[in-house]
Amino acid sequence: MEGDALRGHLELLLLAALARADQHGYALIEWLRSRSDGALDLGEGSVYPALRRLEAAGFVASSWRTDGGRRKRVYRLTTRGEARLRSEREGWNDLVRTVGLVLEAS
Amino acid sequence: MSDTERYLRELRRALPIGCRRRFVAEVREHFASAMAAEVERGVGAAEAERETIERLGPAHALAEQFLADVRSGALGRARRVSVTLTAPRLAACAAAVTVAIVAGAVFAGRHSSPAPPPTPRRTAQSSPTVVLDPRTGQVRMVVYALQGAIRKREGSRPWIATPVPYYLTPASPRR
Fold it and tell me: How confident is the model at residue A3 (pLDDT cuts 50, 70, 90)?
């Protein structure tokens, strides 16, 4: 699954990944890839701008941390982000259910 | 210069000045993590670098995504203002200002006559008030000198600041 199919859901996926643990950009990408058995082929270049958008909106916060001698920008979910994730998750479930109903009827 | 450094340099140049440091640092860290992971999987360093660049996409496209977010206001108003400050735009502004200054100087040189040399006005000597010491009869103060100092501060010609003895000549004979 790539590009267009993921567009619009990338931010939801990032919020979901951050709900599990604070992570830096590359770790987020790797986690999403492994979690989806490689099916989610994220355009890695789109992840960093998306993280900045989420941060500007107040859904995530970030800070530099040193890990293994390297400084990494680590992201964490804010309270606002948690609320957003809940709401997005509900929206996604509604969409899946609705589309499922239509497909089953055809 | 490695491909990574070339990529980061291109990215840096394409980003607004106010946003580039953090973004480039983050992408640099992405390179380090991604290449380390690839090498750990047994991929050669050169191949790991090539794959990382391929996955990130072209630097200009990455910068363009970021700029699109800035323009749309998705990153806040401050970022929207800073979008104008890319290095090429700053260089263009600096060049335009330089040209304007040079053109202004040339224009002013052609359309102005040389300033006349300052002619010292002698009105200062017309009515100096001399304060004498009552015991010795020596000059203690020439008030005009003080007035001259004040005028100088207000932008008069420097000659007004002529030292006090200059004014003593007409005033001294009074006793």
Answer: low
**What is the three-class DSSP state of B39?**
helix
Whether the model clears a pTM of 0.80, i.e. scores above it, the answer is: no
CB contacts of A57 in chain B (<8 Å) are 74
Single out the residue of B38, B15, B69, B93 nearest to residue A57, CA to CA: B69
Report chain B residues whose CB lies below 8 A from the CB of A2. none
What average pLDDT does the segment B4-16 reach?
A: 93
Average pLDDT, stretch B92-117?
74
> Could you tell me where the beta strands, DSSP code E, fall in A1-69?
23-24, 60-67
| Shortest CA gap A72–chain B (Å) | 6
Q: Which residues of B118-155 are buried (b: 16+ CB within 10 A; e: fewer)?
A: eeeeeebeeebebeeeeeeeebeebebbeebeeeeeee
* CB spacing of B25 vs A45 below 8 angstroms: no
Residue of chain A whose Cα is closest to the Cα of B30: A26
Least confident of A41-45, B53-57, B113-117, B119-123: B119-123
Min Cα separation B98/chain A (Å):
36
Q: Which chain A residues are within 8 Å of B34, Cβ to Cβ?
A: 26, 44
| 3 state DSSP class of B20 | helix
> Helix, strand, or coil here: B138?
coil
Q: How far is A48 from chain B (nearest CA, A)?
A: 8
Residue whose pair of structure tokens reads 């983050």 in the numeric block: B26
Residues 6 or more apart whose CB falls under 8 angstroms from that of B123 comprise: none
Across the interface, whether the CB atoms of A56 and B74 are under 8 A apart is answered yes
Question: Would you state the structure tokens that stand for residue B140, as one six-digit string?
Answer: 């203690």
